Amino acid sequence: MAQAVSSRSSRDSDGPDRQIWVDGEFVPWGNATVHVLSHSLQRGSLIFDYLSVHETDRGPAIFRLGEHVERLLRSAEIVGLPLEFDRSAIARAIVETVRANPGATAVKASAYLASVEVDVVPMDTHVSLAIAAYEPGRDIIQRNPGTFHHRPELRIWIEKDRRNRRKDIVPPQAKVAGNYVSPMTAKWAARRAGYDEIVLVDDLGFLAEGPTTNLFLVDGDGTLRTPPEERVLLGVTRRSILEIAKHDGIPWAESPLRPEAFETAAEAFLTGTTAGVWPIASVDDRSIGDGKPGPVTRRLRDRFAQVVSGRDPDFDHWLTRVDE
């Protein structure tokens, strides 16, 4: 069990009525805590993955559970965290947690070093695994009013300073806490400047991704373009959109994209577990097309919505039904 030290009472009366799975046991939301001096808090070594849960005509279903578990294990491998749970145990725990938290639409699985340490290399190498299933709007956003606004189309800003992605730092493919400090700083600056989101650039000046999303552009001829996977987070939604495009005969290509590519793009959108397919209306105050979702964006957005809701038999194998 993770080391839990908290100044709160045994039950967080202000928190949601949720149960979080921690190392094989369920604990109340407010009790799922670690020490302020824990290694993962102080060193940024926590890894995580984020999954979505959708209502279908056969009950709640987790989208691409296997792919998310594999990505979590890949992050652990990159960072060097010795996870004690294998892929089947993690998948079962996620299903169990969703089942124990009715109405959940999101799952966050986190692996972390809970022990209090002095050195950058921990003496206690036990890696705790915590799985939370919840409804972000009700359980988090509504408890912090005014902190989030989801626009139907985005006003984005291109990062003006190149990101440092040398080979001696953790690559973007690892979903490790420390990797999100630079994107947080950049997005915060964009928000202060009045934009909804930021598109980050890599160390070579090419377009990379959003802080928690992947980027797609659509050429005038309808070709879908996205930065190559070796330069970005391997988003599960990104992969799904490419597979849907291939299935539907929509031409696509992975290629380096300069910021100037937005100037000739007919459409643009971001993808992510929370975002789905999220249209981009403008970039640096320049409209993309007429500022409305274009035909390729609408087609993929609507098709993806059908897939995750279990209304598309071609991709039904991507769904893990919780009650079956």
Could you write a compact summary of the structure shown?
This protein has 324 residues and is of the alpha+beta class. It has eight helices and 15 strands. The protein has helices at residues 39-43, 65-79, 87-100, 136-139, 181-192, 236-248, 261-264, 295-308; strands at 19-22, 25-28, 47-56, 59-63, 106-112, 128-134, 154-158, 197-199, 214-218, 224-226, 252-254, 267-272, 276-283, 286-287, 319-321.
Description:
The chain has 324 residues and is of the alpha+beta class. The protein has two domains: 19-143, Aminotransferase class 4, branched-chain amino acid transferase, N-terminal domain (D-amino Acid Aminotransferase, Chain A, domain 1), CATH 3.30.470.10; 154-311, D-amino Acid Aminotransferase, Chain A, domain 2. It is built from eight helices and 15 strands. Strands 7, 8, 9, 10, 11, 12, 13 and 14 form an eight-stranded mixed sheet that branches. Strands 2-1-6-5-3-4-15 form a seven-stranded antiparallel sheet. The relative contact order is 0.14.
Q: What is the beta-strand fraction? A: 15-25%
Mean pLDDT: 90
CATH top-level class of the largest domain: Alpha Beta
Estimated radius of gyration: 20 Å
Keywords:
25% helix, alpha+beta, D-amino Acid Aminotransferase, Chain A, domain 2, globular, D-amino Acid Aminotransferase, Chain A, domain 1, 324 residues
Write the layout of secondary structure elements.
Elements: E1 19-22, E2 25-28, H1 39-43, E3 47-56, E4 59-63, H2 65-79, H3 87-100, E5 106-112, E6 128-134, H4 136-139, E7 154-158, H5 181-192, E8 197-199, E9 214-218, E10 224-226, H6 236-248, E11 252-254, H7 261-264, E12 267-272, E13 276-283, E14 286-287, H8 295-308, E15 319-321
Parallel strand pairs: 7-8, 7-13, 10-11
Antiparallel strand pairs: 1-2, 1-6, 3-4, 3-5, 4-15, 5-6, 9-10, 9-12, 12-13, 13-14
